[in-house]
Write a structure and sequence with these properties.
Blueprint (H helix, E strand, L loop, with lengths): L1 H18 L18 E12 L2 E14 L6 E4 L3 E6 L5 E7 L1 E5 L4 E12 L4 E10 L4 E11 L3 E11 L5 E3 L2 E6 L8 H10 L1
Length: 196
Amino acid sequence: MTTIRAIVVMSLLLSGSCSGGRQETVEVAFDPEQTYTMKTTNVSTLVSDSGITRYRANAKEWLVFGKANDPYWYFPEGIYLEQFDTLFQVKASIKADTAYYYEKQELWKGVGNVEMQSLDNEYFTTSLIFWDQKSQRIYSDQYIRIEQQDKVITGVGFESNQSMTEYKIFNTTGIFPMNEMPADTTNVEKEAGQDA
């Protein structure tokens, strides 16, 4: 009986001392527009559409802002994307210094040194590109340089299908045969940039 009383007294004393402690809460500022909900490094992933593998993405860093008003992905160190056909041949590729993907709009935005290659082995370079997956088109309002097998075309503004096999160039600034390319095309790019 004495042992039972001692156990009961000890239990009451322990429970009293535990519940009497002071509780503190820490306030943490959370801005969903500036705070990522996921971070992944050294990403190499395949993306499917309707159960068929359509894309490959490689990136050094991938940040997801899933709680933002307009949820988006951010690739601060750039991204490399490939689009496949049904036989897993690369139809087109895009590389950009920085990239964003807006989930609701299904819209990619590439910024910086943007390089693209089509199935026809045409090379496109620009400083800003948008890829709208819903409408299946790629477009830009910036200076663009397209290198074909026999000539180089430059302009300001561009629109294409997502395979980059059918496209329009707006405000064409020059068409140069490959063997007659000017030695310095930076002045052409600067002038085109001022007109935009």
